[in-house]
Design a protein that fits this description.
The protein is of the alpha/beta class and 237 residues long. The chain has eight helices and six strands. β3 (90-95), α4 (103-116) and β4 (122-130) form a beta-alpha-beta unit. Bound molecules: farnesyl diphosphate (FPP).
């Protein structure tokens, strides 16, 4: 069975550019083109939810010119791909502290989110200015406020009610995480949601991730045995 929700850490843009003696931003430009192709691939393969780690909390610490380049790319992506998202009936959502984004990106992001909000052919999440720990702290604060207001009793807090305060409140957890460039880290991505996610970390750098690589990832996923903490016998019965 194909995964219902795929999360992707598109890693290796910088190394790809370095191998060619080019600037890091040229790696991100190529990486953005691959993001576009992957979205269409996922739609054609019938994957209902795709989540990209586009910009982490920690990425704000990168050199200013790289941050500026990534923000420009994001803005250009949102403007140039809006028509594609509408044509393909893909709903765009953002996960993260988007109020930290420069206004020229935030405006385009909000416009695209609004324009696509009624679509249901696929959900595309961009985690931007996102950190897994800060998402969990944010949920804890929301619940604490609800307790203070008398709307929730502390003893009634459950995993299920906690999850409702995450950015992904109404979405199933990712079945598969693809992190390119061979790195075996989660890097503060969807910490709560990845409890039982299958991790696949091919050596390919993100700018070289293509249809074959995507199909390979799905094949690896199909061959994985997922037991969610049960024994083989329990899970198969
Ligand atoms: C990791 O490569 C990539 C990023 C930090 C940014 C990801 C951004 C894109 C793919 C482009 C913009 C995204 C969208 C959704 C339009 P790296 O720079 O850490 O590479 P390195 O580890 O080789 O240095």
């Amino acid at each position: 069975m194909n995964p219902k929700h795929i999360a992707i850490i598109p890693d290796g843009n910088g190394r790809w550019a370095k191998q060619r003696g080019e600037s890091r931003i040229s790696g991100h430009i190529r990486g953005t083109a691959v993001v576009k192709d992957t979205i269409i691939q996922a739609k054609q393969l019938g994957i209902p939810i795709l989540t990209f780690y586009a910009f982490s909390d920690e990425n704000w610490k990168r050199p200013q010119d790289e941050i500026q380049g990534l923000m420009m790319l994001l803005k250009e992506y949102l403007i140039s791909e809006r028509a594609t998202l509408v044509r393909e009936k893909i709903q765009l959502r953002a996960l993260g502290e988007i109020s930290k984004l420069p206004p020229f990106v935030l405006e385009e992001l909000q416009k695209t989110i609004e324009m696509t909000s009624s679509f249901n052919q696929m959900i595309l999440n961009f985690a931007i200015s996102y950190g897994g720990r800060s998402e969990i702290v944010r949920a804890a604060k929301l619940l604490a406020k609800a307790c203070m207001a008398g709307d929730v009793k502390p003893d009634d807090i459950s995993e299920k009610s906690f999850q409702k305060h995450l950015y992904t409140a109404d979405l199933p957890d990712p079945d598969l995480l693809i992190r390119t460039s061979g790195e075996m880290r989660i890097s503060n991505f969807l910490l709560w949601q990845m409890s039982y996610t299958e991790i696949y970390a091919p050596e390919v750098l993100w700018p070289d991730f293509n249809t074959n690589e995507f199909l390979k990832a799905l094949e690896v996923f199909r061959l994985r045995k997922r037991r969610f903490g049960l024994t083989d016998e329990q899970y198969e019965s």
